[in-house]
Amino acid sequence: MTIDALGAILLIPAVSAALLAILPGYLLTAKLNVVAALATFLTSLSLFVIEPTSGQYLLLDDLNKVFIVLTTFVGFTTSVFSASYIHHEIETGRLTPAFLRFYHAMYQTLMFAMNLALVANNIGLMWVAVEVATLTTVLMVGIYRTHEALEAAWKYFILGSVGIALALFGTILVYMAARPAVGEGLDGMVWTVLVRHAAAFDPALLNVAFVFLLLGYGTKVGLAPLHAWLPDAHAEGPTPISAVLSGLLLNVALYALLRFKMMLAVNAAAIAPGPLMVTMGLISVIFAALMLYRRRDIKRMFAYSSIEHMGIIVFAFGMGGSLANFAGLLHMTMHSLTKSAIFFAVGHIAQVKGTQKIADIGGLTVTNPVLGWGLMLGVMAIVGLPPLGIFMSEFLVVSSTFTRAPWLTAILVLGIIIALGGLFLRVGVVMFGAPKGKSAPAEASYVPMFTHLALVAMAGIYLPPVLVTGFTNVAKLLG
Amino acid sequence: MSSLQFDIAHLLAGSLVLASFMLLYQDRLYALLNVYALHATVLALSVAWQAYIQAAPHLYVTALIALVFKAIIIPVALHRIIRRLGIHREIENVIGVGLTMMAGIGLVALSMVVMLRVTPGADALAREDLAFALSVVLLGLLIMVTRRNAVSQVVGFMSLENGLVLAATGAKGMPLVVEISVAFSVLIAFIVIGIFLFRIRERFDSVDVQALDRFRGERR
Q1: Across the interface, do B157 and A131 touch by the CB < 8 Å criterion?
Q2: With an 8 Å Cβ cutoff, is B171 touching chain A?
Q3: Which of A79, A469, B108, B158 is the most buried (most CB within 10 A)?
Q4: Interchain contact, A131 vs B183, CB within 8 Å
Q5: Which of B122, B137, B157 is the closest to A169 by Cβ?
Q6: What is the ipTM of this complex?
């Protein structure tokens, strides 16, 4: 059997995870981590040139191509950021070299698990991949071994496991629904086969299955009543992990949900998943926006902002239709890029100041101008100021909903504006208040942060036609 | 399939729900772990029976994992952790036992109504199995939310997971069942190690007398 690009994006992280677990010396392993992530990213780009054939286990279509390229790209830039971040953590003694070996191996395992979840053509395999991704991030969230970090990891673990368990129950129900139409055995879990036959499935069983899948994978997306693990996990883990969690892992869980949504769309008698997703999305937006005001920890604050944006994205996909789907995809991409850039900045800021408390950080534009303005730019992007990319995608979400459901639009816009106020209120003090804390110059890796921000800024003004046609195709696919 | 085969499968799945109820009202940690061992044994019997009547030999592996890992190794390991760390032997409930049992009965009724209504097309064995499995899953969730103690929350999660294995084995011919039960076993092993680390940490912290006072103040 020859190994094509789909196999390679799984194999590269898997092999490098094994290598990183053995090799000593953090300077070497940090570099190797970057090289492996770059190789995976380049391989994922080759998917545009040569399309590997999909089989019973692996699948490539327009939908997961978008997710794969985004995941491997942010995975690569985060590994570059991680190298300089980790260097500082070693110097200050927060992490020991032994932990680092483990950290790098886990980083590549996480990349492997996320890629596997994205390319899996088997709903059981996809489930296992999401579980592996959860386990690796649990281990990384708890890596500092402080009381808070362990508690956050524990909470994430229990809630994540319950979510994963509910998703498995939903998966079993999908298999049960498919069995009369598809027959027993492997075919009943192959996604392409399921979609082809979904019209013949029992709609009632499919409905119940979707509720479980929405609750299960929704926990991992961080939707409002099920979000409790997210702020703690983001705040207590190492910052590269916060960036990967926010920018990528939430997307992967969302991707799983979208696959099942596509399956339901084929079956005319099943419930429309839209209203459920719209409701959960709106609740997340409003809830997160209100919670932003009282945050004292800067990473926790941006974690709530992630809940808000996942809410907007789920809302857009829930509304459906080609324009809203397009907007949802664009928003997801922009959010991944912006949020990881913000975490890059926040990570270095927390290192320079030696604290994550908002009250102890002040006057960043004076003490660390490059980092400060970088963060400011990121925040301006994330709250949706024009002409940056998120403004564009939020505008598309709002305008595509406006004719169909003006009231929902009003609620959504209200949430966005409340969040804007909350973020600016806090960030304003951090940026322009009296300088506080240490003001040592940062040894930061500015390149990943400004690359992301430049991409976001460019997307606000000009979207390349390739991207537009790609996203339009996916939006049609999503129905 | 003869009606005797069906009846035995029904009996075993029903016993699993009963064992879940027994978990629900235990108020001592050791007793809770013993009942959990019973829960896992019933699961192993049920899975083995399904393997026999479906003529699916790979399910015997799942049954064996349930028996060795969940019914013996995990309860013994948790027993040792509790003894060595001297964790409180009594379990604090968030709400009273009577109310919890009522809620449990309500959840079982709910899962019966939901599953039997949505699966008229499926064969009778799988239907009953799914309904019982959902009851076990929901009862596991109930145990997790009504208990404050971390160990009993984990027991709740493990019983929930037993319900999922029951559902997966009941779905005839479902692939990856063995793999999924292995994946879950790894998850549970992690949980147990997690308790161990977490609890040690908590003990070191509570050596500080002031922390102990604050702890008491919160509880009383």
Answers
A1: no
A2: yes
A3: A79
A4: yes
A5: B137
A6: 0.87
Chain B hits for A168, CB-CB cut-off 8 Å, are 164, 168, 180
pLDDT at A53: 76
Instruction: Record the tokens describing residue B112, joined without a space.
Output: 């019966």
Instruction: Collect all residues from A whose CB is shorter than 8 A from any CB in B.
Output: 122, 124-125, 127-128, 131, 135, 138, 145, 147, 150-151, 153-154, 157-158, 161-162, 165-166, 168-169, 172-173, 175-176, 179-180, 184-186, 188-189, 202, 204-205, 207-208
Residue among A150, A169, A179 whose CB faces B198 most closely: A150
Instruction: For chain A of 479 residues, list the mean pLDDT of each consecutive stretch of 10.
Output: 76 90 82 92 86 81 89 94 87 81 91 94 90 89 82 86 91 88 83 89 89 93 87 89 91 93 86 89 93 88 93 93 91 94 91 85 84 91 88 92 88 93 87 78 82 91 87 86
Question: If you ran DSSP here, which 8-state letter would residue A436 be given?
Answer: B
Q: Is the pTM of this model over 0.95?
A: no
What is the residue-wise DSSP string for chain B?
A: --HHHHHHHHHHHHHHHHHHHHHHH--BHHHHHHHHHHHHHHHHHHHHHHHHHHT-THHHHHHHHIIIIIIIIHHHHHHHHHHHHT--SBPPBSS-HHHHHHHHHHHHHHHHHHHHHH-SSS-HHHHHHHHHHHHHHHHHHHHHHHB-SHHHHHHHHHHHHHHHHHHHHHSTT-TTHHHHHHHHHHHHHHHHHHHHHHHHHHHHHTTSHHHHHHHHHHH-
With CA atoms as reference, the chain A residue closest to B206 would be: A147
Q: What is the mean pLDDT of each run of 10 residues along chain B (220 residues)?
A: 84 93 88 93 93 88 90 89 74 81 93 85 78 93 84 87 90 78 78 67 43 38
